[in-house]
Design a protein that fits this description.
By secondary structure, the protein is mainly β. It has helices spanning 174-182, 197-201, and strands spanning 38-47, 50-59, 62-70, 81-82, 99-103, 112-119, 125-131, 142-143, 153-160, 166-172, 205-210, 219-223, 232-235, 241-249, 253-261, 272-273, 290-293, 299-307, 313-321, 331-332, 342-348, 354-362, 365-375, 381-383, 387-388, 396-403, 406-412, 420-426. Helices cover 3% and strands 42% of the residues. Strands 21, 22, 23, 24 and 25 form a five-stranded antiparallel sheet that branches.
Length: 428
Amino acid sequence: MTTLRPLVALPALVCSIAFAAPAPVPAAGAFPNIPGRANATPSIAAAGPVVAVAWGASANGKADVFVAVSRDGGTTFGSAVQVNTVPGEGRLNGEMPPRVALGSSSGSAVPEIVALWTARGTATEIKTARSRDGGRTFDKPIALQAPGAAGDRGWPSLALDRTGRVHAIWLDHRGLAAAREARGGASGHKPGAPHDGVAMAQNSSLYYASGGGSSATEREVTKGVCYCCKTALAAGGDGTLFAAWRHVFPGSFRDMAFAASRDGGRSFSAPVRVSEDGWAIDACPDDGPAMAVDASGTVHLAWPTVLGGDNPRGAIFYASTRDGRRFTARQQVGTLGGPKPSHPQILVDGRRRVFVAWDELASGRQTAALREVRVDASGAATFGGVVTLSSSESGVYPVLAATGSRVLATWATGGDRSRIQVRAIAMP
């Protein structure tokens, strides 16, 4: 396949970090945004009528992680419950939100809820906490990475298998920390010397862990990852785990990579390049993939890239795989016409309908939107109409869940007074 470089690369976005302090929790009813804070970085999960939303609420440079639960399909939500026990430890941004998943609960009609987040302390940690009572309380958080692991880490994803076991992946910089220590703390780059982004990426890795605490099984999956883009992890009905991330390929092409584990995370297949998009950039785009798996085991992937030519523009693409080895040809998801649609999320509902959400600059403000992806038996896609989610104010980082015949979307309004919004969309 011929690979084309764009004539111009869009600048990388700066990874933002936030932290927050305790605040009163509103009563049940409307979505329980935390008063006096910026509420942002949502994620959402649903199982039947139970819906859980996790998000970060920040003020004065600090952030905490909250979860709120609906038991009527997202119509109303109960009170916000703080999950982290170290005040203000949350290291959160749009590509590094807290994650939430619902799993089986033996002998109970109420699913267990697991939250995952990145925490700042003496070292960056990937933490999880489980609720066994429907989100009213959470167990003491546990760390997934090895105790004392050096370097920075984050951009995690979470999946629960059919037994309720926790699986997580994240981007890990301990290799860079080790290389810096071997050089006596020097950066390793001499002024005026050529910069080799591909070689540098070999110090950044994708890590996997299951369990936590003394039972954690942490391991490196691969090196060479692009370090500021969100990862994606999904579990199939047969227990197969699927991972996707942005990889740094020769030539500094920042394409999507994919791997599968068919032994519960003990090993992963060699990375597969999803598509040769031709976007070479010596920086991190801060914009990663999204993935979902349907009941047949087909994996659906959406991701952002930049199209080259005389007028480089951002684009979102869709592809799928049935065997985890070969993907269908990419197909562009039509958006609102902005210069850089970003931050895609993807959902497969109980009827195997596929939906992609994103945000982009349209009509002078950042706008959240979604559209259906109609996939035929060959894997070819056609698209439904665009549904604008944030109709009267800005909307950023939309995420999706399904409950009954409805699609639920949640997003943040953005800015210092950001709020979490939840909207149910009845799809025919």
